[in-house]
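idk why but the lab printer keeps eating my pages so im just putting this in chat instead. protein + zinc ion:
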Amino acid sequence: MHCPRTNASLEPLLIGGITVYTSAQGGVFFDNSQIFKFSSPELKHGQVLLKHLSEHSESEYDVSLRINCPKCKKIVMMRRYFSPVKAVEIDECPGCAGIWLDSGELAKIHENHLTPKERKLLAHEMATNHGFITIKSPTSRFTPTNKNKSAHETTVENLVRLALLSL
Ligand SMILES: [Zn+2]
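predcted complex ->
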């Protein structure tokens, strides 16, 4: 298989019995559904892969360009959101359900990972406030959170900030 961005060969990488295909620029291709073995920061597979990818150089290509699936070649991948708060965009093949992540996108998925409890909380907040939540305008995803706030408030604010960043 070849990198959909640079057309260079993708290198197979075996992690815990699962093979993924990495590019020299830190991109990675996952076969059908295997991304879910790597998408949570608590998963050992995900930690190992992230460390491996972070040793590569940053991408210098235009990631907004549509790409073809490395596996199906003739099929154009669809750009879609990975997480429910729409913070991370990925490329998914409508043919084989393979996923391509560009450099840095696995790190973003880990940063924006929601626990099942957080997902429920976000859904609840959106429902009870008719979609309107009063919040300070987002500055950066990396803004330190105020330690004096209650855990509940902080979590909701973080979720909303992620949702707003993706608009
Ligand atoms: Zn495909």
